[in-house]
Amino acid sequence: MSDIIHIATIGAPFGVRGHLRLKTNTENPKNALSYGSLTDHKGRAYTFKLIRVENDNTLIVSEESTLDRTAAEGLRGIKLFVQKKDLPTLKNEDEFYTNDLIGMTAYSLENELLGNVLEVHNYGASDILTLRMTDGTLKQIAFIRDSVLTVDHLQKKITLVKEHLL
Questions:
Q1: What phi and psi, each to the nearest 5 degrees, are found at residue 151?
Q2: What CATH number is given for 4-86 in this structure?
Q3: Given Cys at both, which of 16, 113, 122, 150 links 159, Cβ 3.0 to 4.6 Å?
Q4: CB neighbour list of residue 159: distance below 8 Å, 6 or more residues apart
C-alpha cells in the first residue's frame, strides 16, 4: 500500500488559453480539486481552478502557470497525486480506495492461490485489476461484483471467479 494516491491525470489541452482536461480518479470529479495542490512524481505542485465539468470523470481546469495551449500540451499525461493521509476517512468497511487492492493476494472460489494484485487501471467502463499469477504470467480481471466476489481488508485477500481472468 502506497502513501501517495494517483488522483488525476492531465489530459489534452482545451482551447487556446492554456486550459486543461483533468481526468480524475474520484467518485465525484470535483473532489480531485478539494485537496488543494496536487503533485506530480517529481514533487512539483499544481494548483487548479475549475472552469467546468466536462463529463463523469473529466474536468476543464486552468492552472496558474499554464498560460497558453503550447504550455498545456507540455503537461499532457502527467499523473497527479495526493497524500493518502489527506483523503477522507472511509465511512464503512465495504468502502476502500482502489490503491488498497495493490498487493492483495487473489484466491479462486475453491481457495486456490492465484497470485497478487499488481496494478489497478480504469479505462472507462470499470476498474481492471492486473494480477501477477503464481506462474509469473500477468492476467487481468474486471473489478465488478460478478468477477471479484470478496475483498477482505484484514486478510489482504480477494476472492474472484478464476474463469473471468483474461
A1: -130, 115
A2: 2.40.30.60
A3: 150
A4: 106, 107, 108, 109, 148, 149, 150, 152
Q: Please tell me the total number of residues recorded for the chain in this structure.
A: 166
The C-alpha atoms of residue 8 and residue 110 are separated, in whole angstroms, by 37
CATH class for the domain made up of 98-164: mainly beta
* Domain layout of the chain by residue ranges: 4-86, 98-164
Please report which residue ranges of the chain form alpha helices under DSSP H: 69-75
Residue 1 in this model has a pLDDT that exceeds 70: no
Q: What is the number of helices (H) and of strands (E) in the chain?
A: 1, 13
Identify the three-state secondary structure at position 60. Answer: strand
Q: How far is CA 104 from the centre of its chain?
A: 16
Residue type, 38: L
Joined grid coordinates for residue 164: 473471468
C-beta atoms surrounding 16 within 10 Å:
10
pLDDT, tens digit, 9 for 90 and up, residues 33-83? 998 899 999 999 999 999 999 988 899 999 988 889 999 999 999 999 999
pTM (predicted TM-score):
0.72
> Could you give the 3-state DSSP secondary structure of residue 29?
helix
